[in-house]
Amino acid sequence: MSFTAPAPASPQRMPTATQGSTLADVLERVLDKGIVIAGDISVSVGSTELLSIRIRLLVSSVDKAKEIGINWWESDPYLSTKSQHLLEENQRLQARLEVLEQQLRSLNAAF
Fold it and tell me: Which residues of 42-51 are buried (b: 16+ CB within 10 A; e: fewer)?
């Protein structure tokens, strides 16, 4: 009597969420839907908390961020061109004011 082992079954691939997706597809999906990463880090000795850090990260497209009410970059002077013009004008006015103050000091010193 001879016994032969059955042939091993062919390995089946387990479907995953990113199977067949390129990095561009995954990135497009993340930017379209958005992703939030949140975490807290706490350092304690005994029952005394020494340090607490809250980390919040949102990754999304500009359109999705505006849709959920986030638009802080529109008023940030380093990111908005309109605000950048105001910042430059403010610097020019401060320089002119400094020149006028120096002239006033030199006039007061002369009298």
Answer: eeeeeeeeee
Measured CA to CA, the distance from residue 81 to residue 75 in angstroms comes to: 9
Residues 6+ apart with CB under 8 A from 83: 75, 76, 77
Q: For residues 78 and 66, what is the distance between their CA atoms, to the nearest angstrom? A: 19
Nearest Cα neighbor of 110 from 102, 67, 88, 36 is 102
Render pLDDT for 34-93 as a digit per residue (tens, 0 to 9).
Answer: 887 888 889 999 889 999 999 888 888 888 888 888 888 777 767 767 777 888 899 999
- Rounded CA-CA distance 30/36 in Å is 10
Q: Is the pTM of this model over 0.85?
A: no
**Residues contacting 21, CB < 8 A, separation 6+:** 29
DSSP 8-class letter at 108: H
CA atoms in the 13 A half-sphere facing the CB of 80: 11
